[in-house]
Write a structure and sequence with these properties.
Helices cover about 50% and strands about 15% of the residues. Helix 5 packs parallel to helix 8. It has 2 domains: about 200 residues, Spore Coat Polysaccharide Biosynthesis Protein SpsA, Chain A (Alpha-Beta Complex); about 70 residues. The chain has 10 helices and 8 strands. The chain is of the alpha/beta class. It is elongated. The protein has an 8-stranded mixed β-sheet, with helices on both faces. InterPro entries: Glyco_trans_2-like, Glycosyltransferase_2, Nucleotide-diphossugar_trans. This is Glycosyltransferase 2-like domain-containing protein. It is found in: Membrane.
Length: about 325
């Protein structure tokens, strides 16, 4: 009996693209079943991340028309990472293999077969990695590649040019469920789980419809979340910076005292204000970084649920039928 595959697809305001890509996902799922690489119990799970348009209605229509489509809806928008996590936790006791992929059709769906083959070859994790960024603008390419390099410099273990297109075995998902932090950054968390992994390269296409939900602002926020959730290197950098400045300040004090006793002191407003401004600005930056870590600790201590499922839909249910609040 072949393993069961669940494809987890987070959706946020995707009413334009969902009717197009849903058929592509279904075709790929059936093709894998036809080739006897996955079992007939395999499914496609859409996770509605509190969309403000008709995304959930579209998911309901799909689920009621085809048994291979399933849907869950979060009670409110909680962000892409939490939507992916909700899908993983929903299927962790049902799936032997889980593939996460975005809804927009940019990631090459055909790469799933190569991922499944890599899984049967013995790999527990298969990362989808972009082979090039030729479809990106220069600015997008520069900022995206800088994003991964910056994360690595800051101590976050990530796979270069890998986003959230990946295959995970049931063993990995079960171990991942033991990670209890509220601040999720899956690109950095999954490498921490370990196990055998490999990569599959693919060409990333233009978005089929709709607009990107990851502008530069969100990319920067994601990078900062990744750094502060996975690494304390910024705090160590602050410590080293403070020691260097303290040493420099000590040298300036010795120089000032020497100048005083030799009678060569000159009252200087510019030098004094420059030093005060520099030290003040540096202190504010350091306090900001420390505050970010303290804020993360505050959220972790409160132990709030990472997601709440308000609705579930399948061929055997109605959109307004089964409702439950689940705190994970």
């Amino acid at each position: 009996m072949k393993d069961t595959l669940y494809i987890v697809i987070p959706c946020y305001n995707e009413e334009k693209v969902l009717p197009v890509t849903a058929g592509l996902f279904l075709d790929e799922l059936k093709d894998l079943m036809r080739k006897n690489k996955i079992g007939d119990e395999s499914r496609i799970l859409f996770v509605n991340d509190g969309s403000k348009d008709r995304t959930w209605e579209k998911i309901c229509e799909l689920a009621l028309s085809e048994k291979y489509f399933l849907g869950i809806s979060q009670s409110r928008n909680r962000g892409h990472q939490n939507a992916v996590w909700a899908g993983l936790m929903e299927v962790k006791d049902k799936a032997d293999i889980t593939i996460t992929i975005d809804c927009d059709g940019q990631d090459d769906i055909k790469a799933m077969e190569e991922m499944v083959d890599a899984y049967y070859a013995g790999h527990e994790i298969v990362y989808g990695v972009r082979s090039s960024r030729k479809t990106d603008t220069f600015f997008k390419r520069m900022t995206a590649e800088g994003f991964y390099k910056f994360l690595q410099v800051m101590g976050a273990e990530v796979i270069f040019n890998h986003a959230d297109y990946r295959l995970l075995s049931a063993k990995v998902v079960q171990e991942l469920a033991n990670y209890r932090e509220v601040n999720l950054f899956l690109r950095g968390m999954i490498p921490l789980v370990g196990f055998s992994y490999t990569t599959v390269c693919y060409e990333r296409h233009e978005r089929i419809a709709g607009e990107s939900h990851y502008p530069l602002r969100k990319m920067l926020a994601l990078a900062f979340d990744g750094i502060t959730s996975l690494s304390i290197k910024p705090i160590r950098m602050i410590t080293c910076m403070g020691m260097c400045i303290a040493f420099f300040s000590f040298c300036v004090v010795i120089w000032s005292v020497t100048q005083y006793f030799t009678g060569e002191t000159v009252a200087g407003w510019t030098s004094m204000t420059s030093i005060i401004s520099f030290i003040g600005g540096l202190q504010l930056i350091c306090l900001g970084v420390l505050g970010e870590y303290i804020g993360k600790i505050y959220l972790e201590v409160k132990d709030r649920p990472r997601y709440i499922i308000s609705d579930r839909i399948s061929l055997d249910s109605k959109c307004d039928g089964e409702r439950s609040n689940i705190n994970i």
